[in-house]
Amino acid sequence: MATINVRLKPRASRCAVKVCGPRSVEIAVTSPPVDNRANDQLIEYLAGILGVGKSSLTIIKGGRSRSKVVEACGLTEVNIDDKLRRLPPS
Questions:
Q1: Measured distance CA(32)–CA(38) in Å, rounded
Q2: Handedness of CA 27, 5, 43, 49 (dihedral sign)
Q3: Of 3, 27, 65, 72, which residue has the fewest beta carbons closer than 10 angstroms?
Q4: Is residue 58 in some structural domain?
Q5: Which domain holds residue 9?
Q6: What CATH number did the domain enclosing 79 receive?
Q7: pLDDT for residue 89
C-alpha cells in the first residue's frame, strides 16, 4: 500500500490534476465540499487516473480538510509515480 498527498480544490470550473512532486498532487473537482461530495468526486477522479477501482482508494487523513492523504491499496509508490509522470501537463 502506498499513500498520495492531495491538495483538493472543490467548486472548480472543471476537474483537473497538477502533479506537485513524488506522490503529491493538486486536484480540482467541480463538486462542493458539502455532504462529502467533493471527497467522493476526488476518489472517483483519482481512481480513473490511477486505473484502479474506487474501493482501492481511501482517505486516511484530512477527510474534512483540503489537504488529504489517500491510501492506494494494490499499488506501489513506484506504480503511482509512474502513472502520475505519464499525465499530460496541465
A1: 6
A2: positive
A3: 65
A4: yes
A5: 2-85
A6: 3.30.1200.10
A7: 73
- Provide CB contacts within 8 A for 42, sequence distance 6+: 6, 8, 27, 29, 59, 68, 70
**Which residues neighbour 89 within 8 Å (Cβ) at sequence distance 6 or greater?**
none
Q: What is the pTM of this model?
A: 0.93
Grid coordinates in use for 70?
489517500
Number of structural domains (the chain) is 1
Is 42 domain-assigned?
yes
Q: Is 14 among the domain residues?
A: yes
**Going along the chain, which residue ranges are E strands?**
2-9, 16-21, 24-28, 57-61, 67-72
Distance of CA 58 to the CA centre of its chain: 10
